Amino acid sequence: MTADATQRRWRDADGEHIDVRGLPPPQPLVAILRLVREQGDVGGAAVIVHFDRDPQLLHSELAEIGWVAERIDAEPGEVRLRLERVP
Amino acid sequence: MKTAAGVFLGGAASRLLPASIPFRFFGAAVAFHLLAWLALLAGADRFPRFSAGLGWPLAALHLVTLGVLVMTAIGASLQLLPVATRQPVRSTRWPAAIWWLYTPGVAAVAFGMGSGLPLLLGVGGVAVALALLAYAVLLATNLRGARGMPGVVAHGWAALGSLLVVLATALALAGAYLGTPLLGRATALALHIAFAAYGFMGLLALGLSIILVPMFALSAAPDERQAIASCALAVTALALAALAAFGVAPQPLRVIAIAIGGGAVALHLRLMLDALRTGMRRELGRSFTLVRIAWAALVASLAGALAVVLEAPLAGLPTLFGLTLIGGWLLTFLLGILQRILPFLASMHAARGSKRPPTPSSLSADRPLAIHFFCHLAALAGLALAVVADSPLIAALAAGVGALGAAAFGGFFLILLRRMRARAPAPQPCTTPAA
Questions:
Q1: What is the per-residue pLDDT for A56?
Q2: Would you place residue B15 in the very low, low, confident or very high pLDDT band (cuts 50, 70, 90)?
Q3: Residue B429 reports pLDDT greater than 60
């Protein structure tokens, strides 16, 4: 895994993934919102985010742009969220 | 699959203080803000040529510095530093106890200064000093265990060191009023001004900006090496100012200190402007207009400091310098940031246990903030005019306008609280570990 957030992205059956573990604030927030904006522009699928710690401001930022997050199962020590546009 | 955002923020809650902790500091700051303008109104006749001495202008100054700036800095740093340094909140009792000691202490200090009651000032000063020492312990504990964000941490340590100098010199100055001087008044005053405004409060403002400005602009984090270099320059400038305060080549060292401080500010502002220029969010509204004005005032304050050091022939120069530094830079910056961050904090707290949180914008109130914006800037301009024209009448009018703006800001805060409480879920048992 590299230190560049843009290289920690991949597509899977359940959506577009981004791994922001190890990044200092506010890099996780910025990287996620950039990806969410891209997905919104192309009408893309859900975004799956891999954290190593608690996302503090993401929830409020997502609410402002009409997205919502839900926590999904993850490996021990990881916080994984599924983000999708509010229907 | 766990579906509630409450679970999502349940994790976040480990670094999120209960709302009552930061909001009690912010609420007290909002109240002291209004009281500061009213104290200035009471002391308007002395304001245009104020430089020192007990009275309502000194009370107004300390209502702003202790009551608004430091009060907000404590609330914001208790909330934000665990996030930046990736640590859990260790205690809720200590922050609450600090508030209960600090808030009446500030009120006693201000009333003692305004009414010319040195004993009350002394008692309040001791309460404030004890509260700030306790805060310093909390801050040091957090910084000692910090992981990452070395630029923020460096600013935190420098601010902490400055706080100790501020406390020592404050007690020395209060001791002088009580007839027991502990340090030469000129030395104590010079150290107190430099280390309070540029040291403790200034470095906290610059350090927290490294987190907040990119967060609001949605930009990359500033380069850590440059942030640390800016901090190092600021600390060097403060050290030279301290030497000058003790009589070591006062004028040359102060000029050099201002030049080095200018370098620190230039580096910091370049990082901040880069963040704003490259951020995803370009429209930051009225709050960042205040922040930009504050940055301009920070630069102007250094020019003012140079004019004071070189004894430029302008009546009221020390007052203008203080107005630019405290009102123009620190207060304007803080009010700009505060009106931006409060809706986000309120949204985060209101979101606990709910699937979808209220949007920050739905919790804010634009009209009171618009009134505050124009009143605040008009009041500062009016005070500058009052100094230049040596007019107590203009000072009184400006203080009245400032009080109106502060009341409007208070209206914004009350609306925000009401909306946050209306959207908040039912209270749940607190599981945050105590100290």
A1: 66
A2: low
A3: no
User: What does the pLDDT look like over A8-27, one tens digit per residue?
Assistant: 888 888 888 999 888 877 88
User: What residues in B contact A33, CB-CB < 8 Å?
Assistant: 218, 280
Q: Model's pTM, two decimal places?
A: 0.89
Residue ranges of the domains in chain A?
A: 5-85
Distance between CA B358 and CA B377 in Å, rounded?
Answer: 31
pLDDT digits (tens, 9 = 90+) for B413-426: 999 999 988 877 65
- Chain A CB contacts of B278 under 8 Å are none
ipTM of the complex: 0.77
| Range with the poorest average pLDDT among A38-47, A62-71, B203-212 | A38-47
The CATH homologous superfamily for domain A5-85 is: TusA-like domain (3.30.110.40)
CB contacts < 8 A (A, B)? 94
C-alpha closest to that of B170 among B65, B251, B254: B65
Say yes or no for a CB contact (<8 Å) between A70 and B8.
Answer: yes
Which of B8, B83, B220 is closest, CB to CB, to A71?
B8
- The better pLDDT of the pair B270, B218 is held by B270
Mean pLDDT of chain B: 88
For chain A positions 15-74, those within 8 Å of chain B (CB to CB) are: 24-27, 29-30, 33-34, 37, 53-57, 59-60, 63-64, 68-73
Q: Which residues of B touch A59 (CB under 8 A)?
A: 5, 8-9, 12, 347-348, 351, 357
Nearest residue in chain B measured CA to CA from A28? B220
Q: Which of B83, B351, B358 sits opposite A25 (nearest CB)?
A: B83
Q: Which of A29, A69, A73 sits opposite B215 (nearest CB)?
A: A29
Best of B211, B342, B359, B364 to disrupt the A interface (most A CBs within 10 Å) is B359
Name the residue of chain A whose CA is nearest to B216's CA. Answer: A26
Whether the per-residue pLDDT at B176 is higher than 60: the answer is: yes
Which of A56, A57, A73 should be substituted to probe chain B, the one whose Cβ sees the most B Cβ atoms within 10 Å? Answer: A56
The pLDDT value given to residue B416? 95
* Residue B364 to residue B344: CA distance in whole angstroms: 9
- What is the predicted pLDDT for the residue at B354? 63
**Partners of A72 in beta bridges:** A80
